[in-house]
Amino acid sequence: MAIKTKVYINGRLVGFHASGEKLAKELIQKRRAGKLERLINIAWHEDTNEVYINTDSGRVQRPLLVVEDGKIKLTEEHLKLVKEGKLSWKELVEKGIIEYLDAEEEENTLIALDEGRLTKEHTHMEINPISILGLMCGMIPYLEHNLAGKVLHGAKMFKQALGIGTINHFLRTDTESYLLYYPQKCLVKTRVMDLAKMNERPHIQNLVVALMPYRGFNILDAVVINKGAVDRALGRASYFRTYEAYENHYPGGQIDKFEIPAAETVGYLGEEFYKKLGEDGLAEIESPIKSGEVIAGRTSPPRFLEEISEFGVIKEKRKESSLSIRKGKEGIVDTVMITEGDGRNRLAKIRIRSEMIPELGDKFSSKHGQKGVVGMIIPEEDMPFTAEGVKPDLILNPHAIPTRMTIGHLIEMLAGKAASLKAEEIDGTPFNEVSEEELKKMLLESGFRNDGKETLYDGVTGERIEGEVFVGIVSYKRLFHMVAHKMQARARGPVQMLTRQPTEGKEREGGLRFGEMEGETLVGHGAAMLLQEKLVEDSDKVVELVCERCGTVAINDQIRNRKYCSLCKGSRVYPVEMTYGFKLLLEELKALGIMPKLVIEDKV
User: Fold this and answer.
1) Percentage of the chain with pLDDT > 90?
2) What was the pLDDT predicted at 319?
3) DSSP structure string for 130-178
4) CB neighbour class for 540 (10 Å; exposed up to 12, middle 13-18, buried from 19)
5) Quick one: which H or E segment has residue 73?
6) Beta strands 346-356 and 237-247, pairing class
7) In the chain, where are the structural domains located?
8) Is the whole model's pTM more than 0.85, yes or no?
9) How confident is the model at residue 512 (pLDDT cuts 50, 70, 90)?
10) Is 540 helix (H, G, I), strand (E, B) or coil?
């Protein structure tokens, strides 16, 4: 007796059937004939002998062409009717020529990429192979020539690219935003870009790229950039930061006030900090602001009423509560807006604009995941040049290509070169692109070598560089990882109240964390004593008195000038160097009912 097939609907067992395969085929045929709802999916799992029927919402489905006996149901006749507008997509779905599959039913199918690969075993065919890809990956030209991991890398960096993020940019008050000065259309485009209208939101610049080492400045993933190109606004962008300041209302009718604080204000900073403010207490538009300068002058009422003056009048001494810009975010006042916030409090929004010119350490990337930081900005006269006098904007290390297998990057360089010579966009849509042979033909017709290589001359010595260099045009993105926003240094600064250790984070003037692994590297270098300096001296060193007899932290009564142990009342206490974090641990252990004791000995 044959084992019956379990039948599940939306994950719930509803019954059994004699033949799962037969049931699945019958249901699929009924769906294609229009007797069942089009969005139902049926999957037969041969290994577990189960049929899964899914009708619930939230499933991701994708359309595929139906194949029967090795032939697609879509005929030339259908295509003709579609072109004439007599046959719609909906009708193709209703006729069972196109059907929607979810992830579960797709497990039971064999899908062909195109008609040339169809066999009797195939059940479906892609309408267009690009539908395999998502939006981001679909915007990477010649993607099928790349390693899959690098494609994902490239797709991940689309969201980090600077460009024109929004058209109403100057009306918005985002906390942080960027604007690339001269974004360009891609010379090598994909059809997905057209669908996403990427040319209306450009985010790249087409750069002349040479694949060659340059005196060690582009070692590993670093890139060398032409200073002349930077002067012509390559990768130049604006960084906007919006600050908010409220005029709060307090109980008793008191209120904050935007104004230039008077000299008698409690906490007055000094005249030089307020010199960029207008009469209303807010920064003047287009005035340059340096670190520490005030952008919104504000005074607050005192927390408690002051003493009555000699004339019996209560004189209110206001407190300074102005808003300054963040450290390292200097710039120019771009916009000042005044409106009402929650609770009818007056609100000022001040936007600061900083010009971000590419510098050493800034990040650039192509669409193929070939990311790198600027290793050197070379004067234009020192850059290598071709016989025609063309100088590359960017020099990429050739070692970045073989290990990453981003052949799509190389083909895009060829295509970009051909596109600039032909003065037309070239289609690099994955699986549908202009072939490498056609690109080579275009280059030959324009009087260039068909392999993209060129003879280059050293800009410093004027000598011919041995061997040919691969030169082409490829779209590069400037990413928002900028060295100006990541630089951090600290000598002395704020500490946490509880542990007395330096604060954490760049915004709070924090220290650099010297962790466990960093400590091990010092031990490995034979510089173990440096641990004392990093983890004690530079952190939370404290000298505490410890009782010799009972090993607890003793008391230093400075008022009575007495040093004694609170436990045994003895006076044999000695100073011991320790970290405040350790002293805190001892106190917390006491709070848990554990009495830790220190055994102290003489220093050897």
Assistant:
1) 55
2) 87
3) GGGS-TTGGGSTTGGGS-HHHHHHHHHTGGGB-S---TTGGG---SEEE
4) buried
5) none
6) antiparallel
7) 5-127, 153-236+360-478, 238-356, 488-537, 541-591
8) no
9) confident
10) coil
Amino acid 441 reads: K
Closest CA to 335 of 146, 173, 121: 173
CA atoms 259, 263, 264, 270: torsion sign: positive
Give 73: exposed, middle or buried? Use CB within 10 Å, 0-12, 13-18, 19+. Answer: middle
Q: Which CATH architecture has domain 238-356?
A: Beta Barrel (2.40)
Q: Please count the other Cβ atoms lying within 10 Å of the Cβ belonging to residue 35.
A: 9
Question: What are the CA-CA distances from residue 107 to residues 46, 111, 277 (Å)?
Answer: 11, 10, 67
Distances (CA, A) of 417 to 223, 451, 471, 482, 506: 20, 11, 8, 29, 43
Whether residue 155 contacts residue 141, with contact meaning beta carbons closer than 8 Å, is answered with no
- What does the pLDDT average to over 12-35? 90
**Which architecture does CATH list for 153-236+360-478?**
Beta Barrel (2.40)
For residues 469 and 451, the answer to whether their CB atoms sit within 8 Å is: no
Fold of the domain built from segment(s) 488-537: DCoH-like (3.90.1800)
One-letter amino acid at 94 equals: E
Return the CATH class of domain 541-591: alpha beta
Cα–Cα separations (whole angstroms), residue 177 to 142, 186, 353:
31, 23, 10
Q: What would the two tokens of residue 226 be? A: 């032409």
CA distance 439 to 451: 9
Burial of 139 (0-12, 13-18, 19+ CB in 10 A): buried
* 395, 212 Cβ separation under 8 angstroms: yes
The reply to whether 221 belongs to the active site is: yes
Task: Say if CB 19 and CB 3 are below 8 A apart.
Answer: no
Angle at 220 between CA 214 and CA 226, to 5 degrees: 40
Q: Decide if 328 contacts 484 (C-beta within 8 A).
A: yes
Alpha carbon 17 to chain centroid, angstroms:
52
For residue 316, give the nearest of 389, 250, 272 by alpha carbon: 250
- Fold (CATH) for 5-127: Hypothetical Protein Ta0175; Chain: A, domain 2 (3.90.1070)
pLDDT at 304: 63
Do 5-127 and 541-591 agree at the fold level? no
Q: Which residue, 488, 308, 460, 481, is CA-closest to 384?
A: 460
Query: Catalytic: which of 69, 102, 194, 221?
Result: 221
